Amino acid sequence: MAIPQTFIQELLNRVDVVDVVGRYVQLKKGGANLMGLCPFHGEKSPSFSVSPTKQFYHCFGCGANGNAIGFLMEHAGMSFIEAVKDLAQQTGLQIPEDDASPQDRERAAQQRQKQATLNDVLEKAAQAYMKQLKASPRAVAYLKGRGLSGEIAKTFGLGYAPEGWRGLASVFPNYADPLLVESGLVIEHADELGADGQAKRYDRFRDRIMFPIRNVKGEYIGFGGRVLDKGEPKYLNSPETPVFSKGRELYGLFEGRTAIRVAGYALVTEGYMDVVALAQLGFANAVATLGTACTADHVQKLFRFTDSVVFSFDGDNAGRRAARKALDAALPLATDTRSVKFLFLPAEHDPDSFVRANGEAAFAQCVKEAMPLSRFLIEAASAECDLTSAEGRARMAAQARPLWSALPDGALKRQLIGELAEAAGLNSQDLLQLWQQAGSGQRARRSASGEPTSRTHEFTLEGSGGHYPDAEPRYPDNRKSWEAAGGGYGSSAGYSKGGDFGGKRFGKYRRAEPPPPRMLGQRRATTSRADRAVGLLLSNAQAWDQLSADDHTMLAHLPPPQGPALAWLEAQMHEHGPQPWVALREALRGHASEAYVCAQVEQVTLVNDPASELSELNGIMNLLRADALKALADTLAARVQQGDASAYEEFKHVTDRIKALKNSHPV
């Protein structure tokens, strides 16, 4: 989907960042701005500021900052496109889809409406299950027996589906509503008729503890149900629906997104109960896959919230198999700036029992010492290989090739080739040559048999003189995908490495090292009063109209880089009138002054005090006027010295203006 920058600009003009942030953060008036507890790091006193005038948020504790789109991407884990769609829906704007036919647009609108309706149905069922839990001493006793408190049950919205085939009929008067089947709450047997002559229907979940599953926006999309006593299956999940896909969703991500940022890593466990119990025991950064193996979509979603993921599995064979699937999913996304680890607990423990038996500190130490991806890759490549024999080492080399090839190019990949070659009893160049020959042979055989050949990239390993084949990346870098969509915040000049909406995410959230401010990126100290004027005027564009025409001319004719930047602002003001910085930021995309302007505005927005900024601007403008008059006076004085009598009266007039300016007081 290509979203025009003009639409993004209009969207940011219409949306109110206070409303967007207020959906997730309790805000209170604090002077010109609103204050609240930062959702991006743990704190007890508010340091998170939201500016209604600038449509901008900033945390003075961890440095988090940005606009409404950035907040949804950072806090709710949305992609750029998802955030734009969410805001467009709130404001009633229709996203331009020039390439879509009217029929396609109509179908898309109907699909969005269907999804919203299913979310409502599932939420209504979740509320009913929660009420049933309070009315069931047996279900409450089970949860207490598992060590869960009422508070944690409320946090995760735990419920109970009572016994009986049609319990939801009391919740939904129209039990024949097709939405109940489509949402996965009800099972219908079209080939069996009930007493009423209609297809036989009954509740999918009966006599089970209910774990509602929510997406990163907090919408209800499905359920997981656990039997109270013995029974099969032990866990039952919602089926695939228009709003629920097990291969893309993670249980507990909505509840744990802030804790993930605070802890600095996401802990992936094997079940619902692990997530809930760990949250009660101090590890609220845990999530779980939904009865399926970990997928690349799961890993990619986690990397929206953190650069570090730890997979926790049982140490038995089943746990090792699950870990291997997680390794396959993580490899294409394991860049040099990300950390992936594997934690294998003793066979007699799951994370919940381990923490209860050994304490939080012991579990935290286990997480710290978890096996890094590089070591697990070598272990996986060596599986069932006798490395004391040539045959075993050859097999290991063959098994390592697809694993190593799946890694994105970088320092990690280049280091691993040496370790794998050493384990195989070869040097790096020989191993790369073997793999290249094997890849060429496979492609030749496929071509001869008429099968399609896979695309490969050839890379040169510096210093080795060899090449190695690398699999086509299955999941492109977010920066490229957003930029290709036409609406990504992908300009390196506009956003820093830590805060670029289109590339690496907003940065690491750690207790020890708060991330750098992430709105703009090109941070540098202000070098002149003209630089400061650029920052103040762009972040308070309404002040431009308070300046005189002479001021406008003076500013627009300053030497580069200030003059061109302010000339651009003057043109924007003529065309659109005063706009908040977030809208001006979008209009700057691709402009020659983009990087420079962003650097100056960043210095201003870190303080975020409009009243003091306007006062400062008045003072700076007086100094700039004095500078301009002094330069003009020097020019006129030189002409007078050269005998130009006509310049004398003008020189006196300019010097009088300089004296008057010095004696005036900025207001």
What does this structure look like?
The structure is a single chain. With 667 residues, this protein is α+β, with helices and mostly antiparallel strands. 48% of the residues lie in helices and 13% in strands. The chain contains 26 helices and 18 strands. The chain has a 5-stranded antiparallel sheet. A 5-stranded mixed sheet has the order 13-12-14-15-16. Helix 1 (5-14) runs antiparallel to helix 23 (581-587). The chain is globular.
**Topology, number of strands:** 18
Number of helices: 26
The neighbouring-strand order within the major sheet is 1-2-3-4-5
Q: What's the Cα radius of gyration?
A: 31 Å
Low-confidence stretches: 452-526
Proportion of residues in extended strands: 5-15%
Helix content: 40-55%
- Quick one: overall form? globular
Could you tell me the mean pLDDT? Answer: 81
- What is the rounded distance between the termini? 49 Å
Reported for the largest beta sheet, the result is:
5 strands, antiparallel
- Look at the helices and sheets and give the structural class: alpha+beta
Helices, strands, pairings?
Layout: H1 5-14, H2 17-22, E1 28-30, E2 33-36, E3 48-51, E4 56-59, E5 65-66, H3 68-75, H4 80-91, H5 102-134, H6 137-145, H7 150-155, E6 159-161, H8 178-182, E7 186-193, E8 199-203, E9 208-214, E10 220-227, E11 235-237, H9 253-263, E12 266-269, H10 272-280, E13 286-288, H11 296-302, E14 308-314, H12 317-330, E15 339-345, H13 351-358, H14 360-368, E16 371-372, H15 373-381, H16 390-406, H17 411-424, H18 428-449, E17 456-460, E18 467-471, H19 478-484, H20 529-539, H21 549-556, H22 562-576, H23 581-587, H24 594-605, H25 610-641, H26 646-663
